[in-house]
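Fold it.
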Amino acid sequence: MNDKLPTIQFQQLGQDAYKRIIASPSQSQAYFDRFHKPVIETARSRFGRTTNVLSIACGYGHELVFFKKYKRIRAFGIDINSNMLDEARGNNPNAVFVTWDVRDRKSRFMHGKFQMSIAINALIYCPYDMAAFMHKALAPGAFGVVNLRIGNEPLNAPFFKDCIKMGCKDDKEEVKAGKYTFTLRAMDYTARTDSLQRLGRQLYFRTERDAQDFFAICGFEIYSQKVYQYPSEENLKNTVQVFTLQKPDKY
């Protein structure tokens, strides 16, 4: 792996703090049943009973716990943080976890090996690298499931208001995707002096159309797009767009 790659500022918060602070549907049975379970069945009907599933930026691997009850599922998780993966292995003893940086574009590690990939809250960091890694990891015709909190969604206003209240700078950042550039909303935690500084800069597509265009540029077809809401302390209606993406057969 290329040690010269820049580092991501997000580091380990601790599993208890992560569950308390990070608004994520990764531990939601309802989210799994609605978005991941149908893709398992679709992937099996297309590729056969044995399914390789990759969770990108898996953290503590909470989302992979729901896959345990399925036979002939081989679960894998990657994350930049090896300490988080140590705990992910405790949560998922039969899964394989690898410390990996998705920004390493030189390696062909895992390319084309997976019939399904998932990324929960992952694209708030390095969105193009995350999406590009998923595309490379998937076999032609395979599926990826990604959720995005849209920056201009009115129902997400309480979330962003709380971020600003906690000392975040409401900023913007340009993200290149191939020949195109997207301007994303950025919540910048780096000015804080406590452990939340480790969250770094979190990025959010401003509109659904931007997200749709982004995935098309990354080489995906949008198999489905649905809205999902879940509660947190600061917002009872966190609203995310959940994209089920398909890598075209031509790849």
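Residues 1-11 have pLDDT under 50 and may be disordered.
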